């Protein structure tokens, strides 16, 4: 800020010189020019008079008078060193300089956003204080202070672009603010400057995981595994890999990482209970994934009293347990010899947004169709099962006329 004021003062001084010098020179030159013009005008008028008098015969020695007139003109031109300089009025000069300085700084104060520049410099000066506060969980930064810290950091990094620690801190702020673009760019700069720093590798890996892109997630795993190769007890790397595995549905891998964490922290650590709960949850998800049913088996039989049409289809449909008429899944089967056995799954769903496996319990219906409509119409023969669970099997007897 001091340098700014020094430069501003120099510029104003130059403007003052430009203002003062022409006033002095202009005054002097104007006086000389005025006297010369007056002498020339007098000489010209006198020459005209001599010509007129000579033509009228009033003057006999015209040449001598012309020489005298020329000599008089030369005698009236003073030497340059003897020219009198008229001083510039102080009453005009000082107010002019005051107006010049006042207008210059006044315009800057009005349109130069001096208050914002001052606030910016104050924010940059608070960088050490705000950085310390960022690490103090008991006294968290407000949203405005977080913005100030970001501004101060960006300012310093503009002048010190090779500061890996500064880029790391800026990336962490971006992560805290859910600003994935800022976080990724800053962490990438920090990693390029210091690729062997475990803290940089961990933070960069966490940022890449936050993006959610599969390619970036795989790169994040490579970074975190590199940290573990150097330090297999790194809790943060183990935790990030465990969480990533759980979110990806790799429950056994997540369990393995959490068990490794338990070995590192010990049974007496307060975090052990949380890890046990995470392991139990992953174990439950693993068992469920191993035993998840995705289909239902159906056998359709025909009551002897039912008369089959010459042409038609058998429509086997899956309905929610509340008996809603609109099917969740259905399959058309050509009329043939009964019984008909088949398996229904998500491939038979009516709409992708509601797959058959979204139902925990269901009712199976079978109907002889002659018009291609999936809903039951008057005169159709049909049958339905009791409520069965997903993954179960049932027999449906077509024995009722709608």
Automatic annotation (TrEMBL):
<keyword id="KW-0677">Repeat</keyword>
<feature type="domain" description="Cytochrome c-type biogenesis protein H TPR">
    <location>
        <begin position="116"/>
        <end position="272"/>
    </location>
</feature>
<dbReference type="InterPro" id="IPR051263">
    <property type="entry name" value="C-type_cytochrome_biogenesis"/>
</dbReference>
<dbReference type="InterPro" id="IPR011990">
    <property type="entry name" value="TPR-like_helical_dom_sf"/>
</dbReference>
<keyword id="KW-0456">Lyase</keyword>
<protein>
    <submittedName>
        <fullName>Cytochrome C heme lyase</fullName>
    </submittedName>
</protein>
<dbReference type="InterPro" id="IPR056413">
    <property type="entry name" value="TPR_CcmH_CycH"/>
</dbReference>
<dbReference type="InterPro" id="IPR019734">
    <property type="entry name" value="TPR_rpt"/>
</dbReference>
<dbReference type="InterPro" id="IPR056412">
    <property type="entry name" value="Ig_CycH"/>
</dbReference>
<feature type="repeat" description="TPR">
    <location>
        <begin position="164"/>
        <end position="197"/>
    </location>
</feature>
<dbReference type="InterPro" id="IPR017560">
    <property type="entry name" value="Cyt_c_biogenesis_CcmI"/>
</dbReference>
<feature type="transmembrane region" description="Helical">
    <location>
        <begin position="91"/>
        <end position="109"/>
    </location>
</feature>
<keyword id="KW-0812">Transmembrane</keyword>
<dbReference type="GO" id="GO:0005886">
    <property type="term" value="C:plasma membrane"/>
</dbReference>
<dbReference type="GO" id="GO:0016829">
    <property type="term" value="F:lyase activity"/>
</dbReference>
<keyword id="KW-0472">Membrane</keyword>
<keyword id="KW-1133">Transmembrane helix</keyword>
<dbReference type="Pfam" id="PF23892">
    <property type="entry name" value="Ig_CycH"/>
</dbReference>
<keyword id="KW-0201">Cytochrome c-type biogenesis</keyword>
<dbReference type="GO" id="GO:0030313">
    <property type="term" value="C:cell envelope"/>
</dbReference>
<dbReference type="Pfam" id="PF23914">
    <property type="entry name" value="TPR_CcmH_CycH"/>
</dbReference>
<keyword id="KW-0802">TPR repeat</keyword>
<feature type="domain" description="Cytochrome c-type biogenesis protein H Ig-like">
    <location>
        <begin position="296"/>
        <end position="397"/>
    </location>
</feature>
<dbReference type="GO" id="GO:0017004">
    <property type="term" value="P:cytochrome complex assembly"/>
</dbReference>
<feature type="transmembrane region" description="Helical">
    <location>
        <begin position="6"/>
        <end position="24"/>
    </location>
</feature>
